[in-house]
Amino acid sequence: MTPKERFLLALRGEKADRLPVTTHHVQPYFLNTYMKGKSDQEFFDHFGLDPIYWAISIMPNVKRNEYMDPTQSEDTIPYSRRVISDNWRVEEIEIPNQAYETKRYNIITPRKTLSIVLQSNPHTSWIVEHLIKEKSEIEILSEYMPVPLCNIEEVNRLADEYNSKGLFRSHIPGFEIYGQPGCWQDASVCLGIEKLIIETFMDPEWVHTFLNILQKRKLEYTRSLVGAKFDLIELGGGDASTTVISPDIFNEFVAPYDAKIIDVAHHAGQKVVYHTCGGMMPILEDIAAMKVDAMETFTPVGMGGDVDLAKAKRRIGNKVCMIGGFDQFHFLTDCTEEETRKEVRRCFKAAGEGGGFILSPSDHFFDANLKLIGAFADEARKCNY
Q1: Residue 355 to residues 9, 157, 160, 321: CA-CA distances in angstroms?
Q2: CATH assignment of 3-59+143-381?
């Protein structure tokens, strides 16, 4: 059975020849630090994991007089490519003498210039100045924000090239410069999660307006996915987890907006996985009710989440495919190989029964012991149905 066949059976809730085993994004820091700069595919081949290929290729809507940002170099990583217009131009400014690499991005529009500041280290990037500083600024997003479309020809070329090697994944684009797939998650990135939570109590109508603006952009992209040969599209984000917000906020401000995108994605012929890195147990059925095809990351308590895999399997395992569940912090870093193998078996016993489960670390990792990754992969390959 090929890795792709194994994955697709699990996504349908069925049993494959054995437990599918993979990881989330393979981080460049990890590859450069521990594997001498090997590629993602070389990483999967080295450990015998079922591979995932992440791809996104966007193009502008020329009918709206939008175009790709000519200031970006040809080697810009695909998910950082920007669509702009004469009414939405992006200016990058390096800020010197900072503890970390720091950039200000000015978004120049006819009405006002918006600004966001990012910092980066070898592991990741983060926001130090959020985009939305005044409530009226969401009107600028509504009026001028470009809408990327899926470049079907390029996506399908990549899909055909990748063929049956593994799962061909993508995600709904977040806000350009720095964003994430879900509507609530994107709003959190643009405003700041603390402010966003407060506004759900102080000015809920404004929050709904903001979410509608972000949803409209994502829906246009999602409609353009018709014919794209993706196996799985990601939506969601950790700021919609119950270690961040309440179930009530989730059901009023998250689910209605992302559920519409999931419905449109299904009409476009795509399968959707909902990504919730954090607490999930109080909203398991609420996520499943959005009619997703899969859910991730089932973060265990030891990683700051709240998931009991066995209980989650009993509650929603017959409705969606479950992806994740493995504690990469404790069992890929500082333990014995036997302890890693026992954790694999525990996950398989808890959630593997009947199929519909893909074993994976609960989100990505930056540091890991190579021998423990090997034990993780080897033991999972022995988990036969």
Answers
A1: 8, 31, 27, 8
A2: 3.20.20.210
